[in-house]
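task queued by scheduler; priority normal; single chain, no ligands, no partner chains; default sampling; output format set to structure tokens
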Amino acid sequence: MNNTTLIKEEVSDKALSQNHDFYKDLFHQNSGTEYAQAVQLAQERVSNFLKNNRKPFSGIRPDEMKSKIEAIDFESPLPDYESLLNEVDEIYVKHATAYHLPEYIAHLNCPVVIPALAAEVLISAINSSQDTYDQSAGGTFMERKLIDWTSEQIGYTNGDGIFTAGGSQSNLMGLLLARDYYSLEYQKWNIKLDGLPPDASKFRVFVSDKAHFSNHKNAWILGLGEQAIVHVGVDQRYRMDPEKLEKAIAQEIEKGNIPIAITATAGTTDFGNVDPLQAIAAIANRNNLWLHVDAAYGCGLLLTEKHRHLLNGIELADSVTIDYHKSFFQPISSSAFIVKNKLHLNIIKHHADYLNPKEQNYDALPAQINKSIIQSTRRFDALKLWFTLRYMGKEKLGQFTDTIIETTQRTAAYLEADENFELLCHSDMGVLVFRYLDGPAESSSCEVNQYIKEKLFFSGEVLVASTKVDGEFYLKFTIFNPLTTLNDIKNILNLIKQNGNEYHRLN
């Protein structure tokens, strides 16, 4: 290197130092003060969110929300972080749904634990990508250890898996492996190399009537079409009926179709119930079918000794979906796809010379991208679960789950004892489907329950969910907060009654 080059580099470094303000917003070795200021101001807004929210929703109407957002001009940057956070307060924070309040009892959105929030600070700032070891050395093995731990909780001895963005993605991976495994094992056809086999239109996957909608979308994405999904009837608690499953399989074979997989549900979205996994696994085994268990919701039962038996048989499945951001109280997103036999993940492996070359020794230098189907760049979401387990432990999380189930059982008993309500079904976990009875001598009408839900939502006082069963409209509680008490539930039910009475007066 000559003197001229050295002088140029010194001038360049000096110019960079003098131009610090221009680069102050970039996260680098000299921007620690700027970063600390921004994060502190954001943290203050989070604290205000906790202090100031007394109801789960502001009640703002979509047209008003839309006009607020559309008034923003991206061509005019704001002068400082205070201005920025004031703006975001007005268009987001003040109207964000407060999942941590007991009056939020609608969907599968859990309150989150603080250790996981602390992990988010590291995840977003350090910004590791989990695809290869050279991008996340410690993260690679920490994620692998958490996958191994989860596999052990399921009951696997040779399992493996990958963190994913959510349950729908994990269910997609389960169906993909089921499809490709069947073709490789029984047809000697490699879909990855040669595309779908000629008879792929005959492939059939069996799910219950109450299974998650992602099964249908995933069948379409994988080129099988929604026609590949066969709905199996349910029992009185809306769980897949094994006898009806066997009949459905036999009927599809008689039609000339090809059964390839069963997706059982451990924790249905509408009822929180677990399909009879042991009986379904036996049927899958007899018919040489891949068994995937969607435990996106029910995975919380892995944490509790008291209720773990509800998942008996999950260890017999070929693959399992886990949503830590549901029943492990993690911030979105934090999910996983787990397989019983780690070798099955080789089906989805694809090599790129610039990332994970074929000749690399992956025992010595691992690459998580070998297990992922649609995410190359992938956040270190596993760190949130690591923080949680190391700081709180499995037992405490399990106690949260036990509390939720106990509150749900007490709520179910209370609903059954009140003549103003009809409880449709008991729950293994925390979901109760019911309706307000429209007068002492009448069945509940859809209209009054629809009225109640809408009134509660736009008042912002209480957020409940709804669903339809056999064409009838029902209200739905999703009890997902260990801080929610029976007294909270009673207050919510009183509000439901008040709005039901108001409907009567108006109609």
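post-processing summary
- The longest strand covers residues 258-265.
- The chain has 16 helices and twelve strands.
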